[in-house]
Each structure stands twice: as C-alpha cells, then as structure tokens.
Specification:
130 residues
C-alpha cells in the first residue's frame, strides 16, 4: 500500500501542475522508482531470513512474502498501475459529488501551498489554542 501512496501522490502532484495525464504518469514513475525499489529491497532483506527457518510454516511464509513483495514492487507498480491509469485517462481523477463537496468544504487541496497567517510570514506554523 505504501508503494501506491508514493506513486499516486507524485502522479497527482504532476497532474495538478501540468494537466497532462500521460506525462504525469511517466514523471510519477520516474520520481518514485528508486524509493519504491529501495523499500521493497529492504523488506525482502528483513523477511528473507524467514525463508531459512527450519519450521516449514515459517519458511513458507517467508518465501510467500518475498514473492509477493517482488511482484508488487515490479509487475504491479511498473506495469499494471500505469497501464490502467493510461487507459482510464481523466477518469483517474473522478470523485463522487458528495466526496467532492466534502473535499471543498474541508479545504483540502493537494496543489495549494500551506497558508500562513500574516504573523508568520516566514512560513512557520502558528499554534492555535482553543
């Protein structure tokens, strides 16, 4: 799940900046490739010793997790997600009307910068006590 959060957040950021779905997908893959590969390799290293266990169930879990990590970090991230997003085009960014209204009411906007009050023009956050 973390891989997809990294990937989709970078794709969304570039899509909001450029408006071009195909370029956003390519840039998102390019910018997240190294971090996702590193995270997958780290998890394989952590889970790898399970496959060396003498207990067959633990060995099975270790091998299964390694295979799942490799498939997720390569085939799904590199092939399936970008291909699906390319086929869907602008439908990638569709949201149901109630969710769009809630999103606008709460004021969440991925493309906007953090608003700072006039007292904190340096960009620091101001602590507000209720």
């Amino acid at each position: 799940m973390d891989y997809e959060v990294f990937l989709l957040s970078r794709i969304r950021e570039h899509y909001l900046a450029s408006g071009d779905n195909q370029t956003a997908i390519a840039v998102g893959l390019q910018r997240t490739g190294a971090i996702i590969t590193s995270a997958a390799a780290l998890l394989v290293i952590v889970v790898g010793p399970f496959s060396l266990s003498s207990v067959s169930f633990t060995k099975l879990m270790g091998v299964g997790m390694i295979v799942a990590l490799v498939v997720d970090a390569t085939i799904i991230r590199v092939v399936l997600v970008p291909a699906t997003m390319k086929l869907m085009g602008p439908a990638n960014w569709w949201a149901p009307a109630p969710l769009r209204r809630l999103h606008k009411r709460i004021g969440l906007d991925e493309g906007a910068s953090v608003n700072s009050s006039p007292a904190t023009s340096s960009g620091e956050f101001e602590l507000v006590k209720n």
